[in-house]
From TrEMBL:
One of its GO terms (molecular function) is DNA binding. InterPro entries: HTH_HxlR, WH-like_DNA-bd_sf, WH_DNA-bd_sf. This is DNA-binding HxlR family transcriptional regulator. It comes from Actinomadura namibiensis. Residues 30-128 form the HTH hxlR-type domain. Keywords: DNA-binding, Transcription, Transcription regulation. Pfam families: HxlR. SUPFAM superfamilies: Winged helix' DNA-binding domain. The lineage of its organism: Bacteria, Bacillati, Actinomycetota, Actinomycetes, Streptosporangiales. It comes from the Bacteria.
């Protein structure tokens, strides 16, 4: 079993009498948390966003994602493939050619990510103002955080 994944997929971490389906268990062993940790990291979000329009080769993804190392992109793609979000297709040609594309499950996740991006774009001015206010206050108090 891979690190960071539940031994029993599909099981809920907490189904007691106070269980709320709209909340998830934040413990490390909870499958919902494990999935969120995987799909909500910065590299996964960028890969899913780029693969929305078309399939891409590894080198194309690496070129488009500023700052990602080859190792991290490889790990991210493997994790997304394992979770059923990305399909890896190896073409029997010389030199070898490998394409990555979203699966239907990945496409459905992209719609959610798009909603998050839309929210961010519509609130970026408010966030910038909040950061500015915080930084001014923290600077006065000697606690600047970036």
């Amino acid at each position: 079993m891979e690190d960071g994944t539940s031994e029993f997929p599909g099981t809920r971490c907490d189904t007691g009498p106070d269980y709320d389906a709209f909340q998830w268990d934040t413990r490390e062993g909870c499958e919902v948390r494990q999935i969120l940790d995987r799909v909500a990291d910065k590299w996964s979000l960028l890969v899913i966003a780029l693969l929305d329009k078309r399939s891409l080769r590894f080198t194309e993804l690496k070129r488009e994602i500023d700052g990602v190392s080859q190792r991290m992109l490889t790990r991210t793609l493997r994790h997304l493939e394992r979770d059923g979000l990305v399909r890896r297709t190896v073409h029997p040609v010389v030199p070898p050619r490998v394409d990555y594309e979203l699966t239907p499950l990945g496409v459905s996740l992209h719609a959610t990510i798009k909603a998050l991006v839309d929210w961010t774009e519509s609130h970026q001015r408010e966030i910038a103002e909040a950061r500015h206010t915080y930084d001014r206050r923290a600077e006065r108090e000697g606690e600047l955080v970036h």
